[in-house]
Amino acid sequence: MVPDPLIILSPPRSFSSVISTMLGEHPELYGFPELHVFAVRTVTALLEREAGKGNYSGPPGLLRALAQLHEGRQTTGGILRAGLWLNARRDWTIKALLDDLLAKVAPRIGIEKSPVNCMNMAFLANVQRCYPRARYVHLTRHPVATRASMQSFFHQAKTLRARGAGGTTLGFDHLLLWYRMHRNILEFTAPMPDSQVLRIKGEQLLSEPDRYLPQIAEWLGVRTDASAIAAMKHPERSPYACIGPSPARGGNDSKFMHNPRLRTGQVQEPRLADLLAASPLPWLSSEGHQMLTAARLKMVEDDVMTNEVLGLTRRLGYQ
Q: Which of 18, 149, 167, 170 could bridge across to 158 with cysteines, CB 3.0–4.6 Å?
């Protein structure tokens, strides 16, 4: 019997690469890289979507998983063969593709963690349609730290785009992305029982893995012995905890792939109130307002948005 998957739900820059890889090193679990499949329903649509981003053979993480599972290792040749294998199955549904991957790692539970899943409620609905009995970990990180990490990441991505075909201007503060995606996750998981969804503060898990990893394992119904917990503290042992071969070098956070070892020590939680007190946040730039005007939409008042973000921050257990 093939177990239903475990899905990590989080915005980007929320420790999802290191934590999903840690969980995937449990002997009864298998951590995939970011597969980026739930935004579509067919392999044809997946390949077309990825081609629009310059990934002409498919999502890098998916290609790496296919190469690893088909050939036991990842090489440039294996990545190219994985792309050909995927192209030959254009008529497959996404569920058929994922069923094939899950069967290859069974009886281990497959873990999927693409943050893009939480960008749109339709993507989350596609997850539930494919796997109504899937279990979910709602992974959180403090909004101030997430915002700073997003700013660094997207600035670097924008710089790279500007060197190529011309960059685009981000029209909103990154806290809005944090807010929107967590709202989507909360709305999606609200009807689910505790046995199906578990919320975890990433800071707590990384600060005290020996306390929280056994709790997660117990919730999943997998081994909680010392050797199983010890294995999860070595994410660097994953075949995806490194830069992949060309043309599929990604699949996980770049910083994590360059330094995948679990770092010990307390992960600090800043205060959102301190950020807001320093200077009021303009939630939208002038470019963002122009985008909304063109779409005949209107942003709520800044103070209303600030209260919304503060309320969600407290709901997730942060200050």
A: 167
